[in-house]
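RECORD TYPE: inverse folding
INPUT: C-alpha coordinates
STRUCTURE:
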Protein backbone atom coordinates (compact mmCIF):
# COMPACT_ATOMS: atom_id res chain seq x y z
CA UNK A 1 0.00 0.00 0.00
CA UNK A 2 2.85 2.41 0.84
CA UNK A 3 4.17 2.00 -2.70
CA UNK A 4 1.42 4.39 -3.84
CA UNK A 5 2.60 8.02 -3.55
CA UNK A 6 -0.96 9.25 -2.99
CA UNK A 7 -1.40 6.92 -0.02
CA UNK A 8 1.87 8.15 1.48
CA UNK A 9 0.79 11.75 0.88
CA UNK A 10 -2.59 11.13 2.53
CA UNK A 11 -0.95 9.54 5.56
CA UNK A 12 1.47 12.47 5.80
CA UNK A 13 -1.39 14.98 5.70
CA UNK A 14 -3.34 13.14 8.38
CA UNK A 15 -0.19 12.85 10.50
CA UNK A 16 0.29 16.60 10.33
CA UNK A 17 -3.34 17.18 11.30
CA UNK A 18 -3.01 14.89 14.33
CA UNK A 19 -0.31 17.16 15.78
CA UNK A 20 -1.47 20.51 14.39
CA UNK A 21 -5.04 20.23 15.71
CA UNK A 22 -4.28 20.39 19.46
CA UNK A 23 -1.33 22.78 19.09
CA UNK A 24 -3.40 25.03 16.84
CA UNK A 25 -5.98 25.36 19.60
CA UNK A 26 -3.35 26.71 21.98
CA UNK A 27 -2.07 29.04 19.25
CA UNK A 28 -5.62 30.42 18.87
CA UNK A 29 -6.30 30.61 22.61
CA UNK A 30 -2.99 32.34 23.34
CA UNK A 31 -3.10 34.52 20.19
CA UNK A 32 0.27 33.17 19.10
CA UNK A 33 -0.17 33.34 15.32
CA UNK A 34 2.85 35.59 14.82
CA UNK A 35 4.87 33.41 17.16
CA UNK A 36 4.04 30.45 14.93
CA UNK A 37 5.11 32.44 11.87
CA UNK A 38 8.47 33.32 13.41
CA UNK A 39 9.16 29.68 14.31
CA UNK A 40 8.01 28.37 10.93
CA UNK A 41 9.95 30.92 8.87
CA UNK A 42 13.11 30.05 10.78
CA UNK A 43 12.75 26.56 9.33
CA UNK A 44 14.26 27.76 6.03
CA UNK A 45 17.44 28.71 7.88
CA UNK A 46 17.40 25.24 9.41
CA UNK A 47 17.20 23.70 5.94
CA UNK A 48 20.16 25.81 4.79
CA UNK A 49 22.26 24.81 7.80
CA UNK A 50 21.39 21.16 7.18
CA UNK A 51 22.83 21.42 3.67
CA UNK A 52 25.89 23.32 4.91
CA UNK A 53 26.75 20.66 7.51
CA UNK A 54 25.35 17.70 5.56
CA UNK A 55 22.96 16.92 8.40
CA UNK A 56 19.38 15.65 8.53
CA UNK A 57 16.79 18.22 7.40
CA UNK A 58 14.60 17.26 10.35
CA UNK A 59 17.42 17.82 12.86
CA UNK A 60 18.44 21.14 11.31
CA UNK A 61 14.90 22.52 11.17
CA UNK A 62 14.10 21.29 14.68
CA UNK A 63 17.24 22.86 16.14
CA UNK A 64 16.71 26.27 14.53
CA UNK A 65 12.96 26.27 15.30
CA UNK A 66 13.66 25.56 18.98
CA UNK A 67 16.37 28.24 19.09
CA UNK A 68 14.09 30.82 17.48
CA UNK A 69 11.12 30.02 19.70
CA UNK A 70 13.18 30.11 22.91
CA UNK A 71 14.95 33.32 21.87
CA UNK A 72 11.68 35.12 21.16
CA UNK A 73 10.14 33.86 24.41
CA UNK A 74 13.08 35.04 26.50
CA UNK A 75 13.52 38.44 24.81
CA UNK A 76 9.87 39.48 24.58
CA UNK A 77 9.00 42.36 26.87
CA UNK A 78 12.59 43.14 27.85
CA UNK A 79 13.63 45.48 25.04
CA UNK A 80 10.76 45.39 22.53
CA UNK A 81 7.05 44.74 22.64
CA UNK A 82 6.06 41.20 21.71
CA UNK A 83 4.35 42.11 18.43
CA UNK A 84 7.34 44.17 17.27
CA UNK A 85 9.83 41.46 18.17
CA UNK A 86 7.74 38.76 16.49
CA UNK A 87 7.39 40.84 13.33
CA UNK A 88 11.15 41.34 13.14
CA UNK A 89 11.81 37.67 13.93
CA UNK A 90 9.29 36.29 11.45
CA UNK A 91 10.36 38.33 8.42
CA UNK A 92 14.02 38.52 9.37
CA UNK A 93 14.29 34.75 9.79
CA UNK A 94 12.67 34.17 6.40
CA UNK A 95 15.00 36.64 4.65
CA UNK A 96 18.16 35.29 6.30
CA UNK A 97 17.01 31.74 5.62
CA UNK A 98 16.47 32.43 1.91
CA UNK A 99 19.94 34.02 1.61
CA UNK A 100 21.54 31.13 3.48
CA UNK A 101 19.67 28.63 1.31
CA UNK A 102 20.97 30.31 -1.84
CA UNK A 103 24.52 30.09 -0.50
CA UNK A 104 24.43 26.49 0.70
CA UNK A 105 21.90 24.53 -1.36
CA UNK A 106 23.02 22.09 -3.99
CA UNK A 107 22.66 23.13 -7.64
CA UNK A 108 19.19 22.55 -9.06
CA UNK A 109 17.48 22.24 -5.67
CA UNK A 110 14.10 23.97 -5.65
CA UNK A 111 13.39 26.32 -2.75
CA UNK A 112 9.64 26.06 -3.42
CA UNK A 113 9.62 22.53 -2.01
CA UNK A 114 10.53 23.98 1.39
CA UNK A 115 8.40 27.12 1.12
CA UNK A 116 5.16 25.42 0.03
CA UNK A 117 5.77 21.75 0.78
CA UNK A 118 6.23 18.69 -1.38
CA UNK A 119 3.77 16.25 0.09
CA UNK A 120 3.55 14.14 -3.09
CA UNK A 121 7.26 13.32 -2.73
CA UNK A 122 6.94 12.00 0.84
CA UNK A 123 8.89 8.76 1.29
CA UNK A 124 8.44 5.95 3.80
CA UNK A 125 11.23 7.40 5.95
CA UNK A 126 9.52 10.82 5.79
CA UNK A 127 6.31 9.18 6.98
CA UNK A 128 8.15 7.67 9.92
CA UNK A 129 9.51 11.10 10.88
CA UNK A 130 6.12 12.81 10.45
CA UNK A 131 4.17 10.27 12.48
CA UNK A 132 6.93 9.88 15.05
CA UNK A 133 6.98 13.64 15.57
CA UNK A 134 3.18 13.85 15.64
CA UNK A 135 2.90 11.13 18.29
CA UNK A 136 5.66 12.76 20.34
CA UNK A 137 3.75 16.05 20.24
CA UNK A 138 0.53 14.31 21.30
CA UNK A 139 2.31 12.56 24.16
CA UNK A 140 3.82 15.84 25.36
CA UNK A 141 0.50 17.70 25.17
CA UNK A 142 -1.37 14.82 26.81
CA UNK A 143 1.12 14.79 29.67
CA UNK A 144 0.84 18.54 30.32
CA UNK A 145 -2.73 19.14 29.09
CA UNK A 146 -4.29 20.34 32.35
CA UNK A 147 -1.28 22.47 33.26
CA UNK A 148 -1.16 24.04 29.80
CA UNK A 149 -4.88 24.82 29.93
CA UNK A 150 -4.60 26.41 33.37
CA UNK A 151 -1.60 28.52 32.33
CA UNK A 152 -3.43 29.56 29.16
CA UNK A 153 -6.64 30.58 30.93
CA UNK A 154 -5.11 32.41 33.90
CA UNK A 155 -1.39 32.77 34.66
CA UNK A 156 -2.10 33.92 38.22
CA UNK A 157 -4.31 30.90 38.87
CA UNK A 158 -1.60 28.65 37.45
CA UNK A 159 1.00 30.18 39.75
CA UNK A 160 -1.35 29.85 42.74
CA UNK A 161 -1.81 26.18 41.84
CA UNK A 162 1.91 25.58 42.01
CA UNK A 163 2.47 25.66 38.26
CA UNK A 164 5.16 27.66 36.49
CA UNK A 165 3.53 29.48 33.52
CA UNK A 166 6.97 30.07 31.98
CA UNK A 167 7.71 26.34 32.02
CA UNK A 168 4.38 25.56 30.36
CA UNK A 169 5.18 28.17 27.70
CA UNK A 170 8.51 26.43 27.03
CA UNK A 171 6.77 23.05 26.74
CA UNK A 172 4.33 24.47 24.20
CA UNK A 173 7.26 26.09 22.39
CA UNK A 174 9.04 22.74 22.10
CA UNK A 175 5.88 21.08 20.79
CA UNK A 176 5.50 23.83 18.19
CA UNK A 177 9.12 23.42 17.09
CA UNK A 178 8.65 19.67 16.59
CA UNK A 179 5.51 20.34 14.55
CA UNK A 180 7.39 22.79 12.31
CA UNK A 181 10.12 20.21 11.74
CA UNK A 182 7.67 17.51 10.63
CA UNK A 183 5.37 19.86 8.68
CA UNK A 184 7.89 21.50 6.37
CA UNK A 185 7.77 18.53 3.98
CA UNK A 186 3.96 18.59 3.91
CA UNK A 187 2.92 22.24 3.53
CA UNK A 188 6.20 24.19 3.67
CA UNK A 189 7.44 26.97 5.92
CA UNK A 190 5.05 29.62 4.58
CA UNK A 191 1.87 27.61 5.15
CA UNK A 192 2.52 25.81 8.44
CA UNK A 193 0.86 28.52 10.53
CA UNK A 194 -2.25 28.36 8.34
CA UNK A 195 -2.68 24.67 9.18
CA UNK A 196 -2.39 25.54 12.86
CA UNK A 197 -4.87 28.40 12.91
CA UNK A 198 -7.55 27.69 10.30
CA UNK A 199 -8.77 24.24 11.50
CA UNK A 200 -8.75 25.43 15.12
CA UNK A 201 -10.68 28.57 14.19
CA UNK A 202 -13.20 26.49 12.23
CA UNK A 203 -13.69 24.15 15.18
CA UNK A 204 -14.07 26.84 17.84
CA UNK A 205 -17.75 27.80 17.28
CA UNK A 206 -18.85 24.16 17.62
CA UNK A 207 -16.83 23.34 20.75
CA UNK A 208 -18.04 23.54 24.32
CA UNK A 209 -14.87 22.15 25.88
CA UNK A 210 -11.16 22.51 25.04
CA UNK A 211 -10.92 18.79 24.38
CA UNK A 212 -13.80 18.91 21.90
CA UNK A 213 -12.15 21.77 20.06
CA UNK A 214 -8.85 19.88 19.84
CA UNK A 215 -10.56 16.79 18.41
CA UNK A 216 -12.64 18.81 15.93
CA UNK A 217 -9.58 20.80 14.82
CA UNK A 218 -7.76 17.53 14.17
CA UNK A 219 -10.65 16.15 12.13
CA UNK A 220 -10.99 19.39 10.13
CA UNK A 221 -7.24 19.41 9.48
CA UNK A 222 -7.31 15.79 8.30
CA UNK A 223 -10.31 16.48 6.06
CA UNK A 224 -8.51 19.53 4.63
CA UNK A 225 -5.45 17.42 3.81
CA UNK A 226 -7.50 14.73 2.05
CA UNK A 227 -9.72 17.21 0.20
CA UNK A 228 -6.70 19.25 -0.81
CA UNK A 229 -4.91 16.18 -2.13
CA UNK A 230 -7.96 15.16 -4.14
CA UNK A 231 -8.40 18.65 -5.61
CA UNK A 232 -4.70 19.02 -6.36
CA UNK A 233 -4.62 15.68 -8.16
CA UNK A 234 -7.72 16.40 -10.24
CA UNK A 235 -7.09 20.07 -11.04
CA UNK A 236 -3.29 19.93 -11.25
CA UNK A 237 -2.69 22.65 -8.66
CA UNK A 238 0.14 23.01 -6.08
CA UNK A 239 -0.67 20.56 -3.33
CA UNK A 240 0.38 22.52 -0.22
CA UNK A 241 -1.56 25.68 -1.11
CA UNK A 242 -4.52 23.55 -2.22
CA UNK A 243 -4.63 21.84 1.20
CA UNK A 244 -4.69 25.23 2.92
CA UNK A 245 -7.39 26.39 0.47
CA UNK A 246 -9.48 23.37 1.44
CA UNK A 247 -9.04 24.29 5.11
CA UNK A 248 -10.15 27.83 4.28
CA UNK A 249 -13.24 26.48 2.52
CA UNK A 250 -14.15 24.42 5.60
CA UNK A 251 -13.62 27.52 7.76
CA UNK A 252 -15.99 29.47 5.49
CA UNK A 253 -18.58 26.69 5.75
CA UNK A 254 -18.18 26.73 9.55
CA UNK A 255 -18.69 30.49 9.64
CA UNK A 256 -21.72 30.26 7.37
CA UNK A 257 -23.29 27.57 9.53
CA UNK A 258 -22.85 29.72 12.63
CA UNK A 259 -24.41 32.73 10.91
CA UNK A 260 -27.38 30.68 9.74
CA UNK A 261 -27.87 29.17 13.18
CA UNK A 262 -27.69 32.60 14.81
CA UNK A 263 -30.23 33.98 12.30
CA UNK A 264 -32.61 31.08 12.94
CA UNK A 265 -32.43 31.63 16.71
CA UNK A 266 -33.48 35.25 16.23
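DESIGNED SEQUENCE:
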Amino acid sequence: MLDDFLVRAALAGVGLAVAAGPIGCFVVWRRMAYFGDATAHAAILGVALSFAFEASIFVGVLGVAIAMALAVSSLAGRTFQMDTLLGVAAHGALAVGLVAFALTARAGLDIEAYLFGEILAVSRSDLAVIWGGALAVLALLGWRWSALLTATLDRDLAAASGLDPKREQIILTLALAVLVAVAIKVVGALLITAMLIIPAAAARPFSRTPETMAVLATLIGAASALLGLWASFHFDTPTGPTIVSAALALFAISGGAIMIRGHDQH
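NOTES: The CA atoms of residues 82 and 110 lie 33 Å apart.
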